[in-house]
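In this supplementary section we document a worked example of the pipeline. Step one takes a protein sequence of length 124 as its only input; no multiple sequence alignment statistics are reported here. Step two produces a three-dimensional model, which step three serialises into structure tokens for compact storage. The input and output of this example are shown verbatim.
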Amino acid sequence: MGLLLPGVKYDASFTQLAIDSFIPRFSKSFVAMISTVYFGCIKKAVLAWTMGDIVVGITAWINIIALFFMTKPALACLKNYETQRKAGITREDLVFDPKALGIQNADFWEKRHKERSKKSKKLS
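The serialised model returned by step three reads:
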């Protein structure tokens, strides 16, 4: 069987240490990958599809919950957009100000609103 050392436990941790000594910081992902491949070879495909369905279902629920929390700001944006369009503002001249709508942590849009405000002041 090869050279066996007394007192050494030959299991996944032994494999991890052996791989880690050869390729540092790669052992955990390597052992996980090999374990996954081995597990996939000995189990039926139904299990893989079932696990995939479970993960997709969890992802869908996370998205549904996120949409629930985004409903209020999204409806505020839609109402603001419709108000501006009814006022005759063209699509190019629409203004999106997240602070005015009560939306916080919209750094990109706040910066963009400031830049567009500066440009419009320079033009007038």
